[in-house]
C-alpha cells in the first residue's frame, strides 16, 4: 500500500492541464460572447464623435438607396432585404468606411416596403468604439 500520495511531478502535470483547460475555455467564452458584452447602443453621447458615426451611417444609407433602387425596384410590400457594406464597395457605390480614430467600419443596410413606402436603415460597427443600435452581425457579411 502506497501512503505517500501524489508526487510533485504528478501535481505539476495536473496544474498544467487545468491551466490549459482554463485558457482554452476563456478564449472560447470571449469568442462566443464578445458581441454580447459590447454595449448595444453607443448613440447616447458616451462616445466622442457620435456625429461622425451618424455621417458614416448616412453614407451607407445613401449608397444602399442607390443599390436597392437598381436591384430591387419592385420589392413586394412587407419583404425586407439586406446589403452589406462590402457588397456596396464591390459595386463601387461606397468608399472605405473609416472613423477619425482610424478604425475600419463594417456594416449593412436594410430595405423594406411597408404600405408602399420605402424604409431604409443603415447599421455600422467601428471596432469596439461604436455600434449602431440594433446592429446584427449575421447581416454584416
Class by alpha and beta content:
alpha+beta
Low-confidence stretches: 39-46
CA radius of gyration:
24 Å
What are the secondary-structure elements, in order, as H or E? Answer: HHEHEEE
Distance between the termini: 63 Å
Mean pLDDT: 85
Number of helices: 3
The overall strand count is: 4
State the helicity in percent bands.
Answer: 40-55%
Strand content: 15-25%
Shape annotation: elongated
Biggest sheet character: 4 strands, antiparallel
Report strand order across the widest sheet: 1-2-3-4
Structural domains: how many: 2
Descriptive keywords:
2 domains; 141 residues; four-stranded antiparallel beta sheet; alpha+beta
In short:
Helix content is 41%, strand content 19%. The chain is an alpha+beta fold.
What this model shows, in words?
The chain is α+β, with helices and mostly antiparallel strands. 41% of the residues lie in helices and 19% in strands. It has helices spanning 8-37, 50-71, 85-90; strands at residues 80-84, 105-114, 117-126, 130-131. A 4-stranded antiparallel beta sheet has the order 1-2-3-4. Residues 39-46 have low confidence and may be disordered.
Topology (elements, then pairings):
Elements: H1 8-37, H2 50-71, E1 80-84, H3 85-90, E2 105-114, E3 117-126, E4 130-131
Antiparallel strand pairs: 1-2, 2-3, 3-4
Amino acid at each position: 500500500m502506497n501512503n505517500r500520495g501524489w508526487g510533485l511531478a504528478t501535481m505539476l502535470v495536473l496544474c498544467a492541464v487545468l491551466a490549459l483547460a482554463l485558457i482554452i475555455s476563456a478564449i472560447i467564452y470571449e469568442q462566443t460572447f464578445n458581441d454580447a458584452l459590447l454595449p448595444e447602443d453607443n448613440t447616447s453621447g458616451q462616445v466622442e464623435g457620435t456625429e461622425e458615426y451618424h455621417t458614416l451611417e448616412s453614407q451607407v444609407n445613401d449608397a444602399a438607396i442607390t443599390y436597392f433602387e437598381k436591384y430591387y425596384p419592385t420589392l413586394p410590400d412587407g419583404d425586407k432585404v439586406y446589403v452589406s457594406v462590402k457588397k456596396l464597395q464591390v459595386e463601387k457605390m461606397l468608399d472605405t468606411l473609416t472613423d477619425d480614430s482610424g478604425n475600419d467600419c463594417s456594416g449593412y443596410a436594410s430595405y423594406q416596403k411597408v404600405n408602399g413606402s420605402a424604409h431604409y436603415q443603415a447599421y455600422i460597427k467601428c471596432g469596439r468604439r461604436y455600434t449602431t443600435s440594433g446592429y446584427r452581425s449575421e447581416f454584416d457579411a
